[in-house]
């Protein structure tokens, strides 16, 4: 025999569903925020690496110039 849900049971289930959906959305937003923070960290690391390489390249060029000038003097 099929039992029909009462209005009270329907409301309780509807409320439980809405609460579960709300928690899901909050969790989904937190995951998106975490992913964006991760991507930003990667971008910052790439920028830092690029700046390091630029500084290293400038240092290397200065050392080469110094050596060339030093050889010319001697």
Structure description:
By secondary structure, this protein is mainly α. 91% of the residues lie in helices and 0% in strands. The protein is built from one helix and no strands. It has one helix spanning 7-73. The mean pLDDT is 93.
Question: What key attributes describe this structure?
Answer:
74 residues
Please outline the helices and strands.
Layout: H1 7-73
Largest sheet: none
Strand count = 0
State Rg.
32 Å
**Helical segment count:** 1
Identify low-pLDDT runs. Answer: none
* Percent range for β-strand residues: under 5%
**Overall form:** rod-shaped
Q: Give the class from helix and strand content and strand pairing.
A: mainly alpha
Report the order of strands and helices: H
| Cα end-to-end separation | 107 Å
Percent in helix: over 70%
Estimate the mean pLDDT confidence.
93
Summarize the structure.
By secondary structure, the protein is an all-alpha fold.
